[in-house]
Task: structure prediction
Amino acid sequence: MEKNYPEFDDLREQFEAGNISAVDFVTMQSDEMTEDYEQFCKDENLDSNSDFAAQAFMDYREELFEENLSN
Result:
């Protein structure tokens, strides 16, 4: 059963305000995003509970997005 996830803009505001961690920001978006994040952490040998890993994942996603735009 799919969880009810908050709106992305609400999550972003909460993250930017410092109310939620980077890990929460990533894992509260969707089941698919959480699975992608957990796989990224396994592939990169990172602790999925660390904000460093979550920030690295966000940077990675941003790079993919920019690559797709330029192709």
Q: What stands out?
A: The mean pLDDT is 94. Residues 51-70 form the longest helix (20 residues).
